[in-house]
Design a protein that fits this description.
The two termini are 44 Å apart. The radius of gyration is 22 Å and the shape is globular. It has a 10-stranded mixed sheet, sandwiched between helices. It is of the alpha/beta class and 348 residues long. The protein has 17 helices and 10 strands. The longest helix has 30 residues. Helix 2 links the parallel strand 3 and strand 4. It has 2 domains: 197 residues, Rossmann fold; 133 residues, N-(1-d-carboxylethyl)-l-norvaline Dehydrogenase, domain 2.
């Protein structure tokens, strides 16, 4: 385990140099890994494990679009693709990658097959952390572990195919066998992590829910809408408003920030941009800080979990959700975005 300095704070991380793929294969050579669910994380994690040489099977509901997707991706019914319960029965490690709502619904089935010595694997701390609401309480004689890639399953797979990796957190909630650490690190390497940093289930879900509602999705979408709307209100065209709000950010600036950092970005822009950004950065930070205080408290109190669980229990939730998503899709801003993307020059 390497000690890395992060802004003056030392953290323990695990790299692929310390825990190479060969070691991961050795640790899991006698294990059967069942990936339960083929939605967001399931495809990327299962295919990466398969390509890395692990004994992996997929469990998914038969006669569903995701079952058909698994078949299209090369999983063979009766060989390495099974109904959820059959896959859970065959597994020594159950990767529980259904949605949070799906995990709650399927838990009675999965729990039956958590026999002593097995491992229960999550990529999100939701079910365990909010167990009073989810009902997910594992038996004491199984390992309970977590690997949470810091990106979508699509990104995990794309980076893997490109020979790269996405950073992941890992956690051990319960070590019943004495093998939980080796198991979780081997799985972290197997699914294609760049490096692994330690956390716990509670910190993972608190940071994840805050990030999704904040900078990663909610906040950035809201800020984009506010700027786009202001530019349109002042007479700027949809193309100009979108390019200045989204296109330049995503196509030019964020890739450079990812490569070199925001500090580098500030140092490599015009003095006009530097002066303006420095003058306004703290005003935006201070304006949204109270919102983040409220957001984190809502996460930590379990309120966000309650809202999510209760919403998913409504019989018409999917229809209502689709209407909200359609509002974003059909908005002028994102229709302008679709037109802009079509006008991007082809690679030559």
């Amino acid at each position: 385990m390497a000690k890395i300095n992060f802004g003056g704070v030392e953290e323990n991380v695990v790299t692929r140099e310390e825990f190479p793929l060969e070691k991961a294969r050795e640790v899991l050579k006698d294990e059967v890994i069942a990936v339960i669910g083929y939605g967001v994380q399931g495809p990327g994690q299962s295919l990466n494990l398969k390509d890395n040489g692990f004994n992996v099977i997929v469990g998914q509901r038969k006669n569903s679009p995701t079952w058909d997707k698994a078949v299209k991706d090369g999983w063979v019914p009766g060989k390495d693709l099974f109904d959820i319960e059959e896959a859970a029965e065959k597994a020594t490690i159950i990767q529980y990658l259904l949605s949070d709502a799906g995990q709650i619904a399927m838990w009675p089935v999965i729990k039956k097959h958590l026999t002593p010595g097995k491992a229960l694997y999550f990529s999100h701390g939701f079910g365990i952390t909010f167990s009073e609401q989810t009902g997910i309480v594992p038996p004491e004689d199984v390992d309970v572990i977590l690997v949470a890639p810091k990106g979508s399953g699509t990104s995990l797979r794309r980076l893997f195919v490109a020979g790269k990796g996405i950073n992941s957190s890992y956690a051990i909630y319960q070590d019943a066998t004495g093998k939980a650490k080796d198991r979780v690190l081997a799985l972290g390497v197997g699914v294609g992590s760049g490096y692994l940093f330690e956390t716990d289930f509670k910190k993972e879900v608190y940071s994840d829910l805050t990030g999704e509602r904040g900078v990663l999705m909610g906040a950035i979408a809201g800020i984009m809408e506010a700027q786009y709307n202001k530019l349109r209100e002042k007479g700027h065209s949809p193309s100009e408003a979108f390019n200045e709000t989204v296109e330049e950010l995503t196509q030019s600036l964020l890739p450079l920030v990812g490569e070199n950092g925001m500090d580098w970005m500030y140092a490599n822009t015009s003095t006009t941009a530097q002066r303006g950004a420095l003058d306004w950065k703290n005003r935006f930070r201070d304006a949204v800080a109270p919102v983040f205080d409220e957001l984190y408290e809502s996460v930590a109190s379990g309120n966000e979990a309650r809202i999510t669980i209760e919403a998913n229990r409504q019989p018409d939730y999917r229809e209502k959700l689709q209407k909200e998503l359609d509002e974003i899709h059909n908005s002028e801003m994102w229709q302008a975005g679709a037109a802009v993307r079509k006008l991007r020059p082809e690679k030559r």
